[in-house]
Structures are given as structure tokens and as C-alpha cells.
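As practice, study what follows.
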Amino acid sequence: MVDIKGQYLHIKTAVDAAIQEVIDSTAFIKGRAVQDFAGELASYTGAAHVVPCANGTDALQIALMALDLQPGDEIITPSFTYFATAEVIALLGLKPVFVDVDPDTFNISIAATEKAITARTRAIVPVHLFGQSADMEPLLQLAQRHNLAVIEDNAQALGGSYTFSDGRRVHTGTMGHMASTSFFPSKNLGCYGDGGALFTNDEAFYTVMNMIANHGQQKKYHHERIGCNSRLDTLQAAILRVKLPLLDQYCTARIAVAEQYNTAFAQNANIKTPYKDPKCTHVYHQYTLQLADHIDRAQLQTRLKEAGIPSMIYYPVPCHMQDAMKPFVPAGLQLPVSEQLSSTVLSLPIHTEMDEEMIQYISALVNQYTQS
């Protein structure tokens, strides 16, 4: 699905030198590269503050912990997303409240979110799914009316942007009270292991998130609150410093691949290509098709596999239908868009190293099967 090795070979000299520099310094924990990367990432996104951490799941957990919520407080989040988004809510003794998504963008439905708000609601966690921002302007207005916090799950859309009605164009991860992201190797900005970060424009949240990620302490051995141990390795920060200046180039390459796919599938009535919201820059962490109901998705995957083409289903089971979430889901809850998507979506390879021949080969096989 991604060609991490091919991408590495283009930047091998710089990456190897950065790794060697860390090894020579032996500052493997909280080395200089970590804070340098945090500053550079803040400058790139326009966020006032960045807190590096161990992974994207930790990032979301730390953001929720910074809100000082109480057991049973409700957090609204979309059901059509990776399980980690809901998992950390439940892990902290909070109640995930699942809502449906927009049938075009696959992102959180504003109308569904408004209907789900109760007296116990404390926050909304929109997910910028597959590389495209949720519709943040009306969501932020809704949150403000109800005095709710907004934590952006930006694990899949780093490098993307959103344009407000007044013309302001801002990076994903800089609009809510806080945001989380992941540097998992397959991400648009991926390291060579695990890594994550938090974003905020609020000084108080920045201070608290820093403390939580460091065992709840500002001063060593003086613990002011319960926290966790979540650090970005210096080695990973050094690698990310090499790759961050290339992020826009990587996103442009993914967009070019998506546009070629779109052209190839334009006349196929059995395929719905990814919708691009005109307010957003879609950076295509995934290129996800929606297949017509009568298309046998499993058989299509088999045909692709036989031809040496990987494919993935993101996500085969929506969160509200996961066994682990049964204690939180009202009996009979139906989220028809999420359920429909889970049975019809299919993601094709998309990465920075794809060429026209690869794209034509993949799209021809998909068209051949779905139009026969």
C-alpha cells in the first residue's frame, strides 16, 4: 500500500547522517532533535505549540486527560474511523457517543453531532479521515454554542488545510482546542517506528499536556498530577526533521496519483471516487473507492492480489459495532452511512513512489472487474 523503502532511498544520505548524529551524541531520550522538530512542526502548521509524544493514540489520550473530565462524561466521535479514536475515550472511563458520517466526505456529520449533544457531553473528537478535513467551521460554531471542547484527530491529514468562509486557510490540527497526530511509518509524514504529537494554540493546555506526557511533572520528581510516560525518541525526531521539509512534496505526489485514478475511473458507474470538499486540501492518506452494492468486494480483492496488487478495507467494522464497545452503545443503534461504507469501501495503493504505469495497471484491473 505504501513504498517506505523506495521513499527512504531518495533521502538515504540525509536520514543516515541524522541517525548517526544521534548515535554519536548518545542523547537517545529528549535529545536536541526532539525540541527542534517540535519547533519546526509548529512553524509548518502554524500551531502555537507542539508536544511530541510516543504515538498518535497516546496523543489523543493526553489531550483528553488535559480536559480533567469525570467518569461517564460523554465524548462525541464518528463511528467510521480507526478503533483507537474511540478506544482512548473508553480507556479513560469516559463514554464514547458514536455518530454517523457524511456520505460524501466520510467525515463526522454536523447534523448528527448536534442531535447527539446531551447535558453530559463535554467534547467532540472529529477525525480528518483519509486525508481530508472535517467541516470544521460549523462544528466549531456548534461546540462554542454548547461550551464543548474540540480535539481534532489529525492522524491521517497532516499537511492538509481547511478554508473558512472569511477566507482564512489553516492547517488541519490547528483549529480545535487541541489536536493529535501520528507519525506511524505509513503516514504522509511517517517516521521509522512509532511517534506522535499534540497541537494547541492555548498556553494552558500546552503546559498541562507537557506535564501529562512527562509523568505529570514540570520539575523532576515533583508530580503535580497523574500523567503517563510518552516520549518521541530522539532517533525518530531526527528522521522526521529530514522528512518534514518534504511533506508538501509528498502530499503533492499523492494528490497527483489520486487525480490519475480519478480520471481512470471517471466513466465507471460502479465506482464512486473520493469526494473532494472544495473547502479542503485533500492529501490522500488513503485513496478509498466506494463500490456499487452488487460488486463482490472480496472477489475484487482476490483478483487484485493475484495480480500482485495490495488493497485494504478501511474499515470493515464501524466502531459502534465492535464487541469492545457494546457497553457504550444503545441497543438498536443504527448508523446507516457508516454501516454502508464499511461494506462497500476499498482502498487502493497510493504513495509517493507510484508512477503512471503502476496507476494504469491497477486501475485497468479494477475497471475490468467492476465493469464486466
User: Anything to note?
Assistant: Residues 247-265 form the longest helix (19 residues). The mean pLDDT is 98.
